[in-house]
Write a structure and sequence with these properties.
Strand content: under 5%
CATH topology: de novo design (two linked rop proteins)
CATH superfamily: 23S rRNA-intervening sequence
Number of helices: 6
Helix content: 55-70%
CATH class: Mainly Alpha
Number of domains: 1
Order of helices and strands: HHHHHH
Shape: elongated
Radius of gyration: 19 Å
């Protein structure tokens, strides 16, 4: 929380966000997925890795920009979510075009993945299982990534709603500037 006399509020802290941690896991696994299953000269490979990277980087950039622009934070968080949606479509395309099974949202497999990556475990960042992505078959890995992208998107949607409420309750940097300047003059 900011102090009443603070012009620049606390900002950053994105590494502790479960949305960031999940998006980062998606990015790392996407690089592995593309190395294993997508032609290295394919435009799709570039698009997938850039969409995954954008999901991560925009969360970080928005979090840091929040000090002086809630508008930018909201925009970049939305861009992160949109980038992950683009990536989701690539994984769905991969499965469909190869005649591979896509897990239903509430299938036992999808539920097991969601349980493994619960959103309320933000204090536990398990990076060790990224290496399992190097050995699972393409159908399973694509489905795991569909689950993780959906989880990251869910978390970002929740984050956007919280940012919106925070902005409506507290205002933005320009309002703080005006209020503090006015107080200084009076």
């Amino acid at each position: 929380m900011q102090t009443p006399h603070s012009l620049i509020p606390p900002h950053g802290g994105y590494r502790k966000l479960r949305s960031f941690q999940t998006a980062q896991k998606v990015y790392d696994a996407t690089v592995i997925f593309c190395d294993r299953f997508v032609d290295r000269f394919s435009r799709t490979r570039d698009q997938m890795t850039q969409a995954a990277r954008s999901g991560v980087q925009n969360i970080a950039e928005g979090s840091m920009a929040s000090a002086t622009s809630k508008k930018t934070e909201l925009k970049l968080t939305g861009v992160a979510r949109a980038s992950l949606e683009e990536l989701l479509l690539d994984y769905e395309d991969f499965l469909r075009q190869r005649g591979l099974k896509q897990w239903e949202k509430n299938s036992p497999e999808a539920l097991a993945i969601r349980k493994q990556y619960l959103s309320d475990r933000s204090d536990q960042s398990d990076r060790s299982d990224t290496y399992a992505f190097k050995t699972v078959p393409p159908e399973r890995l694509a489905n795991i990534l569909v689950c993780l992208v959906n989880q990251a998107s869910f978390l970002l949607a929740r984050q956007l709603r919280a940012l919106e409420k925070q902005f409506l309750a507290q205002g933005g940097f320009t309002e703080r500037l005006y209020t503090m300047r006015k107080k200084q003059r009076d």
